[in-house]
Amino acid sequence: MTWRDVRRRAALLLLITILCGCAAEDFSRLHPHTEAEEHAYTRLFPYYVDICATSQIKKKPGFGASDRGGVGGHMGFFLRGACADRDAHYPVLHLCRPGEEDGVGIGMDAHFSSAKWSAARGRSFFFHGGMSPDETLTPARYTQILQQARQNGVLDGISFHDDRFDEKPAAVSEEDWKYQLTAGTDFALGMGRGSYCARVPVSQKDMLQIIDFMNAQNAPYRSGKEVFRWSVFTDNCGHLAHNALSAAEYWPEWPIDRPMLLAIFDFPVPKNEYVNVMMRSQSLPLEDVAALYRDDDIRAMLLSENRLPPGPGVLSVFEPPQARNQVYDVDNLMLLFYDEAIIGRYRHRFQDIQSEPRFYDLHANILWWHDRYAQLIASRHPAEWWLQRLTLTPAGRADFRIFYDRYYEYLDRQLDWTTQALHQLGN
């Protein structure tokens, strides 16, 4: 990157910050995720990751620790099929066992010093504190949710930086203050935030790899070897969510702790990452076998694991803020993009995701992929046709033929699977 690029991106960042903070999110126009939709989805995909861009938070005065978040929002994620170890008294994950919750919600918080992330048990509690959509968040219900979070041990074993207690009233315990500081960010997000979630189905093996990654992220802080220090540019909630998917080989890792001069111009922004997750499978040039072969990550995944990054089942899921609300102001909540002001490619993609059923409706999604797989198979070119367009050594040509065969075997399997899935959804 040249200094001209540096200056251009610095000026662009300033302009974007000014322009994109002008419009509030209209959460009322979107269809919230329902229990029936969740059941239909998990029949097909028992393991998944929800990567969620959540809006700013605006707690009303008079309810303990103040919480007025920035317009960049926050990023949390939910791992269906991973559960918190209740006996560890510290955030540690394992594969869910019979009788445990459906999954765990992950929160990363700048308050933390002895952990990078926390774990809130169960989807309903992570997103809504167990509240129904038509329920009113009263002060009493707010207190009850915080007590439930404490009983569930959401912050067990997690120390906070000392300065987080500077404004704590003497009559409030440190433990109560910690839950007041983290409510709506690390658990019960919907008390004060709306969430756009990009859902990615994963295999059990993928989930185990994510679990190993997550536990390794907390290990140095649990042992006391290091003190966790959150950084918007070098190690934020978006880095953690992005790299959890990278542990499942969804995409390349996003490095953390890079030099500030580099990191300040290239860091994950929640709403951008939501779009990036949604568009990952859409951006693969599935009609161009040569381009797929030239992609080192794609080639390695197909040759070693007989698969590509997920396509069917990558869905947008919306979790609204609690509309009837006496504790948080949920009107005019902001969530900005880091985008190019004129081109606005992220904003255009975001609009596509919200308007095209294949991005948010499970049946439409599976049908779209079924038809795409059928079209790709019908328009198949021979391997020699592609080899004429590649410059390869004899060994490379042999390797490509293996890749080519694996690719069309993959498409055949995917077509069969989507056919069966459509039949199952119809029943």
From TrEMBL:
Domain of life: Bacteria
Record-given protein name: Secreted protein
Organism, scientific name: Granulibacter bethesdensis (strain ATCC BAA-1260 / CGDNIH1)
